[in-house]
């Protein structure tokens, strides 16, 4: 009957689909709920149970040993409580049970410290437990917002030292029970990255300074050639050319373009090597580039309509870079497939540095495919990406306060 109603009443389809999913969720009674802690350096939280080829919409990543209360299960996922009205989902493989948790009436914050060194500013917040958090960027004005779940304001004061050069101001508010919001106002319009993690039970938000000289010759740029090894990527419609090889060719041309302008370049790979995305992310986290460009090429089941070039970003503060690169790529006469935001790609999910994904053209569209097979075209594409980065840097220099 439920299936019949879903087919008959289109407006009811989403509700019916939700009901089917909900019926398979195991909800735990309050007295049966238990606690887990995250494992590994970057456990991901999801908004819901929806999935796509990139894994479904991510709320964000959290540090190791972060404490969660489990209120339900679905397949290999735990539903974890953030507040009375908000939950998230996490893979069971990213957690371990903790049977020794003693939950106080409230997790109270105490006095903060804001400081800086020669590359980063820091907001340091003592907490009695490693609590969950999420964050996002805002523009006009440029701010970083961090919600800490389970925390309650009891802050005596915020000490802000003059050594903090990128942070303009830090403030907080208790927006709801168990939802403590930190607002970090930045001096520059352009976001250059931030990281969140725990040192012991002290939550530390690290904000990257804008480089003193915003020019290619002063920057370290990571260039990521997508796929590699047994991860072939797309396959050309007529040529059967492998995407992994085209990506590498464009990436190597881009390396030369950037180095000729004086930039220091970090390459994910320079040959046909299999490197999974999690290892790429962890490597970049150690090397701390100033920005990242990931090179891919597109494909679609529809070989007659889907065509053109596109750029992708996840975090709002990095959209301007993706727009500048797309504009230059469109100068090559390619059709516009679009500037795509909130893209759920592992390398775009990182907040530590500006990052974008470039999908050069469609290997499944005959005209685009023919262009990509020409090395002169791939070299030109790399040149246009470099010019787009330079255009963006010029915009950033004009925004200086």
What this model shows, in words?
This protein is α+β, with helices and mostly antiparallel strands. The chain folds into three domains: 25-97, SH3 Domains (SH3 type barrels), CATH 2.30.30.40; 107-208, Immunoglobulin-like; 216-398, 3-Layer(aba) Sandwich (Aminopeptidase), CATH 3.40.630. The chain has seven helices and 25 strands. It has helices at 2-8, 13-23, 243-260, 277-287, 319-330, 366-372, 375-398, and strands at residues 26-27, 34-38, 43-46, 58-62, 67-74, 77-81, 87-91, 95-97, 107-108, 112-116, 120-126, 133-138, 143-149, 151-152, 158-160, 167-176, 179-186, 194-199, 202-208, 220-225, 264-267, 291-298, 309-312, 336-340, 355-362. The strands form six sheets. Strands 1, 2, 5, 6, 7 and 8 form a six-stranded antiparallel beta sheet that branches. Strand 6 (77-81) and strand 7 (87-91) form a beta hairpin. Helix 1 (2-8) runs antiparallel to helix 2 (13-23) and helix 5 (319-330) crosses helix 7 (375-398). The longest helix has 24 residues, at 375-398. The protein is globular, with a radius of gyration of 23 Å. The chain starts with a helix and ends with a helix.
């Amino acid at each position: 009957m439920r299936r019949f109603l879903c087919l008959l009443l289109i407006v009811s389809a989403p509700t019916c689909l939700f009901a089917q999913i909900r019926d398979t969720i195991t909800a735990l009674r309050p007295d049966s709920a238990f606690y887990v802690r995250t494992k590994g350096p970057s456990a991901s939280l999801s908004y819901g149970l929806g999935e796509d080829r990139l894994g479904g919409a991510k709320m964000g990543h959290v540090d190791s040993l972060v404490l969660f209360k489990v209120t339900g299960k679905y397949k290999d996922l735990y539903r974890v409580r953030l507040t009375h009205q908000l939950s998230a989902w996490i893979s069971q493989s990213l957690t371990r049970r903790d049977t020794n948790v003693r939950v106080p009436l409230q997790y109270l914050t105490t006095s903060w410290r804001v400081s800086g060194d020669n590359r980063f500013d820091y907001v340091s917040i003592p907490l009695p437990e490693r609590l969950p958090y999420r964050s996002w960027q805002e523009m006009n004005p440029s701010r970083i917002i961090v919600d800490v779940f389970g925390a309650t304001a009891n802050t005596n004061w915020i000490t802000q030292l003059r050594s903090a050069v990128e942070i303009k101001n830090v403030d907080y508010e208790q927006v709801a029970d168990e939802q403590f919001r930190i607002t970090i106002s930045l001096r520059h319009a352009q976001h250059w990255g931030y990281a969140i993690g725990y040192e012991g039970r002290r939550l530390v938000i690290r904000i990257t300074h804008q480089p003193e000289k915003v020019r290619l010759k002063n920057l370290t740029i990571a260039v990521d050639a997508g796929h590699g090894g047994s991860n072939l990527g797309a396959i050309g419609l007529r040529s059967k050319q492998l995407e992994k090889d085209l990506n590498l060719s464009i990436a190597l041309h881009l390396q030369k373009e950037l180095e000729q302008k004086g930039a220091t370049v970090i390459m994910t790979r320079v040959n046909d090597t299999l490197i999974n995305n999690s290892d790429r992310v962890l490597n970049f986290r150690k090397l701390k580039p100033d920005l990242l460009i990931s090179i891919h090429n597109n494909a679609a089941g529809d070989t007659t309509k889907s065509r053109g070039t596109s750029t992708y970003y996840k975090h709002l503060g990095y959209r301007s870079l993706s727009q500048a690169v797309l504009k230059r790529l469109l100068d090559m006469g390619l059709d516009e497939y679009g500037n795509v935001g909130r893209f759920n790609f592992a390398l775009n999910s990182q907040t530590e540095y500006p990052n974008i994904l470039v999908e050069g053209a469609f290997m499944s569209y005959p005209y685009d495919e023919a262009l990509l097979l020409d090395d002169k075209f791939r070299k030109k594409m790399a040149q246009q990406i470099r010019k787009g980065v330079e255009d963006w840097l010029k915009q950033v220099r004009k925004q200086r306060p």
